[in-house]
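Lab notebook, bench 4. The sequencing result for the construct came back, and we need a structural model before the next group meeting so we can plan mutations. Quick request posted to the team channel:

Model the 3D structure of this chain.
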Amino acid sequence: MFERPEGGDIAVLVHIDFAKQHNNEDLTEFKTLAISAGVYIVGTITGSRDAPDSKYFIGTGKLEEVRLEVKGHKANVVIFNHGLSPSQARNLEKILECRVIDRTGLILDIFAARAKTFEGKLQVELAQLNYMATRLVRGWTHLERQKGGIGLRGPGETQLETDRRLLRGRIEHINNKLDKVRQQRSQNRQARHKAAISTVSFVGYTNAGKSTLFNQLLGEHVFVADKLFATLDPTLRGMYIPDVGKVIFADTVGFIRHLPHDLVEAFKATLEETANADLLLLVIDLSDPEYQAKLDQVKLVLEQIEADKLPIIEVYNKIDKINGFTPKVEYNDEGIITKVWLSASDNIGLDLLKKSIVERLSKGIIQLKFKIPFTRGDLRSKLFSIGAVSFEEMIEEQQIWVLAIRAPILEIQRIFAHEDQSWQDYILD
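Done. Here's the predicted structure in token form:
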């Protein structure tokens, strides 16, 4: 489709620091991203400028340095650790005579490789199409050719217009499918809400150890790897927790600094699971020297998806790599647990996290005694099934069971939701 040199996996990286710009990208992270995309790095060009060049992003001297590096190593792709405008990318490709992609294109490529589910692939394709729509002009040399022939005479339609129309059609088609996914997720959340099922969502910077913690906590086997975006498609698993009831845990895609807007938009269906959670476990790699900056980036994304006001436990992971750190919890001024230190890979401190989750979710625990008639054995069984009964006494003369109950009020309300009588009517006077 595009008339330009084919891309490959022999890459030269370009990283520029700008004196007048805040939040410059991180070079180490950039290299990790490139490796995660499967490219072989043969050279890295760094430099500094006051501001990007409008034509080439970098100056002509630096551009010549990149061109010689490409030629000397026979590289066939140059990757910039920055966002490039369509015209800048087109101008660079003409000079460098190879494919040029920017940071957003690199992240999109990684996401495309990681997506496994139907929904995940749809979301990635949507982000790619939105990204491509602004760059469509760069790949064509026959854009101004107009259609002719029977039924198409007159002003006609340029090839570029046709391509844009097809892109718009595909984007609309994918959006319609994702709308159905969102509706289904919304229905599932409503069902969980009616059933008083809490949701706990794992969030954090990519490669912080979310999937490892998820596996250790739930005994699952979610794919884990020491690379960025190892988890792309969300994983949901249920687990029964005493004093809380059934809880749905969600392992989600990792965030990254300056997460492309198109990706945030495309993954809204998935990120809604986070935005509607009852509790967020914000996993932080304590061994990363940049952990505070990355924590700030995660909080920015949470703000973007309107999840920053949800209850959060900050989970400082990988304490095994830091001398002097032991498992512990930290409380705020109101006596609420807000931070936990642990090592997911070594299974150290997970008991503290479990207790913290229980404490944050078990608000509204009731302790009382119920009197259940012998004719309501079904009701008695339901109370036993959720682990609410700590003691039972049978009183033959009154034809009742007396049950000592300790359970979340939401669980009790769920059981009595379809009863003619309220649960308060069964309380032993």
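The chain has 13 helices and 14 strands.
Will bring this to the meeting.
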